[in-house]
Amino acid sequence: MTTTTPETAVPRENTTTPLRLRVARLSILVSLVVLGIKYAAWAVSGSGALLSDAIETILNVLASVGTLWAVAFAARPADDNHPYGHGKAEYVWAVIEGVLVVLTALVILAIAGHDALHIQAPEAPLPGALLNASAGVINLIWALILRRMGRTHHSQALSSAGDHVLSDVWASLALLVGVCLIPLLHWLWLDPLLSALVALNVLWTGFGMMRHSMTGLLDEAPPPELVHEVGQTITQAGQGALEAHDLRMRRVGSLYFVEFHLIVPDEMRITDAHDICDRIENAIRAVLGRSSIHIHVEPEDLAKRHKPGASGVLVM
């Protein structure tokens, strides 16, 4: 016998979705403002390094639009074609954004190579650097907000967007220091070198985003500590059952999927077994929050606790 309650058969809509959508929309506005400031910084200074930073910010605008799409699509309720919901859309977009970041890094590297072969002194490095620094401050504040929202509401799209913007902050800081040093040290080669360093930073960020997002697409298990806590919860709430085994868990966005087998006495009535399952499900939700729980009820002769080498067995 397999038991799920109606509310877990089709996961309930995440009540934080409207807030996540507002943050994603605001992210587009912030990225456009930052792009305008960085374009002005390049126009004032003529610095190839600042141009590279502005080009990377164009990607931020496109990424913000993609993040809004991913958050909105992931919020759709389960349907006949997607009975487990649309939560993985955020992971898919995070991988796509990582690819775009890598491609942008390659473009910036090409610009840096061209500038290295045609070195020119920036026209007004200090005003341009100051404008770029102001954009960096805006990005720093917004990156911290995005990362916090992503962690709090389990949004891979917002977390990846925050990581992306934060990488832009470190690049802006390096550019501020470097571009200000050019008129003091007269090292004209420093401008294309900074462009190359920005590109390498962007490249590293892009690969990191793809690697982290792939764990969600491949249904990587939650941390062992959390799995152990859920196992302990099943043991405590499953009084009346004999054993639980083969516990498996995964997370898609803010929704956890939990499944395991529950051994009950042969003489137990179906209604009693169902009551135990309800009690276990409520206890698991108290730990995990929004969850889809699948419990397969089995008779005594399928218990594993007396079988040699059996693992993953929780004795009630």
In short:
Pfam families: Cation_efflux (PF01545), ZT_dimer (PF16916). The chain is of the alpha+beta class and about 325 residues long. It folds into two domains: about 5-215, Cation efflux protein transmembrane domain (Alpha-lytic protease prodomain-like), CATH 1.20.1510; about 220-315, Cation efflux protein, cytoplasmic domain (Alpha-Beta Plaits, 2-Layer Sandwich), CATH 3.30.70.1350.
Tell me the CATH superfamily of the largest domain: Cation efflux protein transmembrane domain
Q: Low-confidence parts lasting 5 or more residues at pLDDT below 50?
A: 5-13
Supply Rg.
26 Å
Helix content: 55-70%
The CATH top-level class label of the largest domain: Mainly Alpha
First and last CA, distance: 19 Å
Put simply, the count of helices is: 9
CATH topology of the largest domain: Alpha-lytic protease prodomain-like
Order of helices and strands: EHHHHHHHHEEHEE
The major beta sheet can be summarized as: 5 strands, mixed
Quaternary state of the chains = single chain
Biggest sheet strand order reads 1-4-3-2-5
Overall tally of domains: 2
What is the approximate shape?
elongated
The overall average pLDDT, rounded, is 80
Beta fraction = 5-15%
Q: Care to count the β-strands?
A: 5
Which class best fits the helix and strand makeup?
alpha+beta
CATH architecture of the largest domain: Up-down Bundle
